[in-house]
Amino acid sequence: MISFIEDKFADLRSFLISQGVIADNSGDGESGEPKAVTEARNRLKDAESSLKSTRSQLKDRKADLEADYGRDSVFRPIKGKCVSKDSGEYTYELCWLEKTKQRSKTGGSLVGMGDFSKFTTVTVDELAPSGEITQKERVALEYDRGQSCWNGPQRSTKVILECGENDAILKIAEDEKCVYSMHATTPAVCETSSNNTKAASSEKDEL
Ligand code: MAN
């Protein structure tokens, strides 16, 4: 008798489900939440996480596009490439538009001499072929917020550039305690001096 009633109920249920009167929750999870709702919730979670990662990519790409890579973006292809040179007790490393570093030749850890912050210009004295001393504007790269100096500032480096066939560090000096300057060559600045000046003033501002 009981099983007869149960069968009838089951038939009635199937009929109501087939007519769309009640929901088919036979596959529902333990929480009692209808399966369709769980699935919809998971789809929402997936969509939210993919939106989050797309937003973060968009932010990175916008920042990259707005970043200053110098006149005509000449530093874009060499960003992150490094050159090094031994000087005194240290080996120095210059990584274009990223970091400058110092390592003691007697071991010890790498010391950060600054993170790239901006292009600038410096005026240098140059001996002209005529024997006259002339002033030239040079593109320079500023690196700051490096490793803190004991009882001193955070290390910083100014890299003064001149046109050369290869990327190379010519010389390094510690002008004041933990304030460094490097002279380096790169084909990236091989232009007329008026163009070089333009590189540092950043075309971004002119657009
Ligand atoms: C290290 C180097 C030097 C610097 C001193 C300061 O030895 O980074 O260039 O002058 O620390 O304590």
Strand order of the largest sheet: 1-2-3-4-5-6-8-7
Shape: elongated
How big is the Rg? 33 Å
**End-to-end separation:** 87 Å
Heterogens = alpha-D-mannopyranose
Write a structural description:
It is a single chain. With 207 residues, the protein is α+β, with helices and mostly antiparallel strands. The protein is 28% helix and 35% strand. The protein has 3 helices and 8 strands. An 8-stranded mixed sheet has the order 1-2-3-4-5-6-8-7, with helices on one face. A hairpin with a 5-residue loop joins strand 4 (111-127) and strand 5. The chain is elongated. The N and C termini lie far apart (87 Å). Mean pLDDT is 89; it is low at 193-207.
Key attributes of the depicted protein:
eight-stranded mixed β-sheet, 207 residues, 8 strands, 35% strand, elongated, alpha+beta, 3 helices
In short:
This protein is of the alpha+beta class and 207 residues long. It is built from three helices and eight strands. Strands 1-2-3-4-5-6-8-7 form an eight-stranded mixed sheet, with helices on one face.
Topology (elements, then pairings):
Layout: H1 2-18, H2 35-66, E1 82-87, E2 90-95, E3 99-104, E4 111-127, E5 133-144, E6 156-163, E7 168-176, E8 179-186, H3 193-201
Parallel strand pairs: 6-8
Antiparallel strand pairs: 1-2, 2-3, 3-4, 4-5, 5-6, 7-8
This protein binds alpha-D-mannopyranose.
